């Protein structure tokens, strides 16, 4: 006698409940992972935007000439107002300090807060004379070796020279009697372009190389890493004592050591010398004042730039140094 079997079709209630539970668990996991991915993408985008804004602020601060200590500082079209020991700027979602209706973004309405903090770095302050008669060994860094850039008249033409002078307390530097000076090739009659390379020898010493735009090696010396680099232009003048007109002098610095290079430009204020930091950390001291009482080398400051959102989450922090008069 045959046995009849009846097959069930579909799922039992228990199977349906178990399946729905599993699907729910998987869905929650997928959704959570998706939301985390979106959040991380948004966080990364916010930090990238903040980094671009921070870089813009750093470049503006470095290019601008300003004083600190007042209620605000103006850098280009950006105004930072003092808030205790920090200068701040309040921004909307587009990193602007004004809304479309030209109302200022305030602390209460800000999406982002931009802060700039100044702290004095360790640096010497010294005075020089307006005429920059610093080759008398009595002025700034008088006990330092110096790079002298000079100008001399040769028949009907002027020629530019460079020399590395090792400090000698007993005598002044005289370009006319310096048989080691080298002629500098110019891009044209009024444009000088030099490159300075600092490369480490060991923990205490480095090489200093200066070349002109043709690649000619003008200076190759060894020096202590801790020593200042002094570039003196006191002999860079016409035969009648006046400054050359329309001169453009560019010095590109490549610091390939791990230590900061402190470079002092000893020059008259009106002489156009542009020192460009191409690699590594370089601190520039430049005497620019028009009278002796104000003619100081300024103060070197550590500058911290930070950008946070309105929830105090840090999006960007950057550091650099600037010499401020």
Number of helices: 1
Shape: elongated
- The proportion of residues in beta strands is 35-45%
**Ends apart, CA distance between termini:** 113 Å
The largest sheet has its strands arranged as 1-2-3-4-16-17
Helical content stands at: 10-25%
- Total strands: the figure is 17
SSE run: HEEEEEEEEEEEEEEEEE
Count of the domains: 2
**Structural class determined from secondary elements:** alpha/beta
Write down the Rg.
Answer: 31 Å
Mean pLDDT figure? 77
Give a quick rundown of the structure:
The chain crosses the membrane at residues 12-37. The chain has 325 residues and is of the alpha/beta class.
Describe the structure.
- This protein has one helix and 17 strands.
- The chain is an alpha/beta fold and 325 residues long.
- The chain folds into two domains: 13-121 and 304-315, no CATH class; 134-297, no CATH class.
- A hairpin with a 4-residue loop joins strand 16 and strand 17.
- It starts with 12 loop residues before the first helix and ends with a strand.
- Residues 123-141 and 288-297 have low confidence and may be disordered.
- Keywords: Membrane, Transmembrane, Transmembrane helix.
- The chain crosses the membrane at residues 12-37.
- Pfam families: N_methyl.
- It comes from Clostridium beijerinckii (Clostridium MP).
